[in-house]
Amino acid sequence: MEKVMTSLLEMGFPQQRIELAIARTNSHDLQLLMDWMMSHEEELDAASAAVADENAPSTSSLERPARTETAGLSKSAKASELTEGYEITGRIGALAIEESDEEIEECVLATVTRSFICDECGDERVFESTEEIELHTEESGHENFTDLMEERKQLTEDEKKEELALLEAELRRRRLEKEAREDEEDLALKKKLIRIRADIRILEAKKKYEESEKQKNIQESKKDKKDALAAKRRVREQIEADKLERKMKFGDAPAVVNEPVATKPEVPAKKLSEKSSKVKLHIRLRNGTTLVETFGIKEPLASVRVFVEMNQSDGPFNLMTTFPKKVFTSEDYEKPLEALGLAPAALLIVTKP
Question: Residue 309 sits in which domain range?
Answer without folding.
Answer: 270-351
